[in-house]
Amino acid sequence: MATQNDSSTAAGGFGRxxxxxxxxxxxxxxxxxxxxxxxxxxxxxxxxxxxxxxxTADTGWHLTYLATLLAPAFAVGAHLYRTNAEALQTGxxxxxxxxxxxxxxxxxxLLLVDVVVPLELFAVAVAVLAPMAVVVAVVSxxxxxxxxxxxxxxxxxxxxxxxxxPGPLESLLGLPSVVPSLVDxxxxxxxxxxxxxxVTLVVGGSVALAGSxxxxxxxxxxxxxxxxxxxxxxxxxxxxxxxxxxxDPMPATVVAAVGIAPxxxxxxxxxxxREHERIGLLLPAVxxxxxxxxxxxxxxxxxxxxxxxxxxxFLTSPHSRFAEQAGFYPAIAGSILLxxAVAVLAxxxGVGAAVYLEEYAPENRFKRVVDVNISNLAGVPSVVYGxxxxxxxxxxxxxxxxxxxxxxxxxxxxxxxxxxxxAREAIRSxxxxxxxxxxxxxxxxxxxxxxVVLPRxxxxxxxxxxxxxxxxxxxxxxxxxxxxxNVKFAAPTALGEAASAMPLQVYAWSSLYAGEExxxxxxxxxxxxxxxxxxAMNSVAIVxxxxxxxxx
Amino acid sequence: xTENTTETTAEPDGNTTADPTNxxxxxxxxxxxxxxxxxxxxxxxxxxxxRDLDVFYGEEQALDSIDIDIPEKRxxxxxxxxxxxxxxxxxxxxxxxxxxxxxxxxxxLTLRGKNVYDPDVDPVALxxxxxxxxxxxxxxxxxxxxxxAYGLEIQDVEGDYDEIVEQSLKxxxxxxxxxxxxxxxxxxxxxxxQQRLCIARAIAPDPEVILMDEPASALxxxxxxxxxxxxxxxxxxxxxxxxxxxxxxxxxISDKTAxxxxxxxxVEFGDTERIFENPDHQRVEDYITGKFG
Lengths: 552, 293
Fold this sequence. Notes:
By secondary structure, chain A is an all-alpha fold. Helix content of chain A is 76%, strand content 0%. Chain A has 22 helices and no strands. Chain B is 34% helix and 23% strand. Chain B contains 11 helices and 10 strands. Chain B has helices at 20-32, 86-93, 123-129, 144-154, 161-171, 175-178, 191-203, 221-234, 247-253, 272-277, 282-288; strands at residues 46-57, 60-71, 75-79, 103-111, 114-115, 130-133, 209-213, 239-243, 256-261, 265-271. A 6-stranded mixed beta sheet of chain B has the order 6-7-8-3-9-10, sandwiched between helices. The longest helix of chain B is centred in the last third of the chain and has 14 residues, at 221-234.
């Protein structure tokens, strides 16, 4: 009976239900999703076209690069896509790493050439590492040392090392210096390492340590030490290879340490540890070889490249009245220093507030009021923050207008709510299970936060902070309000110096220096540099997030 | 139980109590014969004692005047249907309920004669004497070694950490499986191994009482039986209070059983064998035989 019924219904079909409205709705949603993206892409393509002027190149130039770079890279990519998607991902990541590392090495070289004295960096690094070693040695020798004793040892070791005895008081009270600080001791030592050696040891050392952990994560300490040593030697070699290519030893080591070592270490790690994805390294190999080959070939065949406005000269010279000679260098340096100041100021305050609100604050009216107002603060227009910075730092505290410190503090206030919100998000995502486990072991709240919550949420906090920094790097209005100069002709060398920033410089070019060349070529070139730096920062954030979301 | 194979053939009454090593075995076998009215489990002084313990979540009463005496160095099982307050009671013992804002406790709950809800009791110090194992295995995202050493580090325990970690992992029957990979993450272990890691972590600082909140409910049958064996062995040195919804498990591993029923009342408490074979209350019998719950 039942089967008969079923078959008769099925034979007659089930009828149709209309989906027209739903389909319409679905495509409207898709249009809404893509709208902003498409508009922005069109604009960026337009701007990039103006900045790079690809059509001014010889056809031969295009064809050469098509043959040496694009076609092989596309072929390899397509092959990997079909056979081994994971390897393709690894390869793409390696290519991205090469680009991003080279960008960052440029920034680092800029800092070490113009702002930070390598020897001072070395001295401070020694003065921080030495007391750390002392503290670790003391604590590991006597594990049962009371907290007070540990704390006193730590404070004393760092104080003497960084400030000496009696330290900052000596100038105040007119006391003679009894023990010089380790910083001074290194600075005035009879033998001082060359700048390139100092950079190799500090910057290269950190890269080598991190790299060795990546390559030889589970192969014992001896292998790790070997790898770290090899990386360090490779970076030091940069000081000798650099001059052959016309680069000074010190910047050459920076580029070797920040630009070349990370992708090289990544490639070695993949080759050593992930047999299955090893083939993916073909992609970066083809890209690098293709670029080099293309450059050689176009040179030999005499094809002219595009008449690009983003050139080495544009990146390394200051502004000029003539469009051909106008450069971006002081603005890039200003923006980098501003970002450092913003990060140093906003990160600890923002994370502190987030930890308090998530882990300590009781559920009450006060917390709800704070909650709502932090969200509101995130929406306050940036020009209002500029006014706040002007009022507090310049007028009230009497700082000189437009310096990196004032700008950093103002932008720091601007992104503080965003840092707090994203850090809270990251802290909230730590499962309650793990917190309970810690409390159940008899941990205090501080121990739980320090040992369990912060380590587990750190990558999320970092991601949020980098994205917030990306917002700060593009801000113009607050910088205008606090009186940052639109145009500077030299890179700032100290935090107390007035500095321009990339968006300000672009704004100046587009408003003050009327002229077709500036409007149509220099401004697009500046925008392209700004956007590329922003994307590089965001890509780091995204990679961090993906790695830790799936990695746990 | 593998260590006890030589003792299982001994007559319950044939044990000499003079030998201290046999004494503990005697306790276990005595439990088996407790039904014959010998009252041989005539327990040492209770380590945990509650009188008129009421717990409220806001307006809702979760526990209704609980009186219980939990004996030292025994496994005490707490069973009952969902929502009967058995986990709430467990979390009263180490004051984990303090973490819930709306939770209010009235009455008396003493650990070794001291009311843990006295104003001068520091809940953090209390939890250092009362270890806890949770329903879901929850190792920290740290190495196996650091997981076990966590309690030692936060409590500033003195001693050779390597030795304590090894001993704890051995006691948790996990050492043989992880001794070569102490540096790898605790999250890489299987669920059953993770739960045993959590047990090792709980016993490393040498607490007096171990609370277990349905420790095997998220595990497969093999891992469950491993954890059950482990719990029986732990009772040689620790007082174990275990919440479980699995009545066979309670019958297998516990010396004493408390039956909580809906409404947050403790309906019956006594030797496990008696509760399962001859409960005083009809409701308990209905629950145990599966007529409801």
